[in-house]
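sorry for the late reply, my laptop died twice this morning and i had to redo everyting from scratch. anyway the thing you sent over, i finally got around to it. pasting the sequence first so we're on the same page, its 197 residues, then the predicted structure underneath. double check i copied it right bc i was rushing
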Amino acid sequence: MIKRIYGLDGGGGVEWEEDGIKRRREEDKSDSFTLLTAMASRTTAGGIGFAVMQKQAGKFNEDEAKALLEWVKKMSGENISTEGSRENFHKLMKDGTLLCKLVNGIEAGSVKKIQKPISNFACMENINAFVEAAKKMGVPTEETFQSVDLFEARDLFSTCVTLLSLGRVLIIYTFHTFSSKSRESPTPSSDFFSSYP
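ok and here's the structure:
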C-alpha cells in the first residue's frame, strides 16, 4: 500500500510498507530507481506471537524477582535496588554486568572480562558469558535463557528460572561440600530459599 508520493517534479520517489518493513524507492541521478529498505523499528508481535509474549510476561512474579535481586545484591556485593518490578529487574539485568559480577562473586574468575556496556553487542556478550558460567557451575541447559529474551525483555521469567537454578546448584554444592567434610551432614541454611517449597 502506497503511503506517500513525493517530489515527482525533478526527483523524488515513493514510500510504502510491505510485510512490516518500510520501503522507499527513490530516483537517483541516473534516472534509474533504487530500492532502499529501512527498518525504522521492529513491529510488535501479533496473533499467536502476541499471545505467547503475554503468557510469558504473566509468569513473571514480582515477589520472586525481589527475592532474587536481594540474593544477587548479597552475592555480588553491589548496592542495587531490590524492588521486584519488571522495569527495575530488566534495568538492572539488561547489560549483563550485574550477572557477571554475581557469578564472579560465587566463584572468582568465572567471567574473566566483563564488557563495558557501551553497545548492544557488549551487553549481549556479558549476558552470554553469564549463561556459560552458570552452565559450567551446573545449571542445566534447559533451565537457561536466551540472551535476547533478557536484553529485549521478551521473557524475564526465564531469567528468574536460571537464577533460581543457579541458587539450587549452589545449595546442593554447599551441602555436598559440608557433607564430605563432616559426618554430621549439616543442612545449609539460606534466607533466600527458605520461603520457597
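Residues 1-10, 27-41, 183-197 have pLDDT under 50 and may be disordered.
thats about all i looked at so far, will dig more tmrw
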